[in-house]
Amino acid sequence: MSACIPRLGLGTWGRTGRRGLEAIETAIEIGYRHFDTAQTYDSESVIGEAIERSNLPRGEFFITTKVADTNLARRDFAPSLRASLDRLRIERADLTLVHWPAYQHAVPFDEYMGELVRARDEGLTRLVGVSNFPCALVRKAVAFTGPGTIADNQVEMHPFLQNRTVAACCAAHGVAVTAYLPIARGLVSDDRVLRRIARDHGVEPPSISLAWLLHKGMIVIPASSRREHLEANWRAADLRLSTDEIEAIDALDRGQRLVDPEKSPEWD
Fold this sequence. Notes:
This protein has 268 residues and is α/β, with parallel strands linked by helices. The protein has a single domain (2-184, 218-225), classed as NADP-dependent oxidoreductase domain (TIM Barrel), CATH 3.20.20. 41% of the residues lie in helices and 14% in strands. β5, α5 (135-145) and β6 form a beta-alpha-beta unit.
C-alpha cells in the first residue's frame, strides 16, 4: 500500500495565509506533489488555491487530509470531510486519516472507523488510514476494516523517538508509516552525531534525519516555508547513508516525544 503514497511530501501545519500560499507554490515549483493537511491546520484552503494556481492536472498531486477528533461522530464525519474537499477544491482526497482516536471513547471506535470506510466507499477518498494510533488500535483497526484497508498510520517519528514497536506492528499488518515531525522541530540540528554525519555528506542535519527515515521505509512530511529548506528536504531523498551511519543514528533513540496532548492514547 505504501507504494501508492509518495515517499516525501510537505507537512502544512502553520502554512496559512499569503505566506503559506507562497510556501506551497514554491514547493510545487521545486517538485513537491504530496501535501499533508488536516481539518485543524487551517491550510486546506491554501493548498487548494496553490494547486489551482499551478495549472497542473489534479492527478499529479497526492493530497492527505485528516478528520478532527471533534468530527468523528456519524452525524459529523462525512459532512466535515465534504467541507474539507470544498476547501481543497477537489472532488476526492487521495488519503483520509482519523487524526486522533476518540478521547476517552467519546465516540465508539466502530462508529468512526465505520464512517471512515464509508467515506471511501462513497468516493470521498481513495485511501483511508489513521494517525496517532498505537499498536493496540492499529490491530483493532485492521481487524475491524479487514486486511489491506488501512493504508497508513501517521505518527511522530525522528531519531530521538524511533517508535520501533509501532513501525514493526504496522509492517506486520501491511500498513505504511508516515513520520511527522521528522526533524524533531529542528532539534536534530543540535545533535553532535547528526552534525558529524551531515558534515561528511556536505548537507545539514535535517537532511540526514530525512534520509535515515526514508532508508527505514518511512514516508516523511517535513514542514518548511523557506526555499532553501524546501530544496534541501527535497534533495534528501537522494542521500545514501552507510551502515555505520545508520547504526549511529539508530543509537540516538531516547523516547523523546514532542507531541503528547491530554487526548493522546496510551503510547507504546
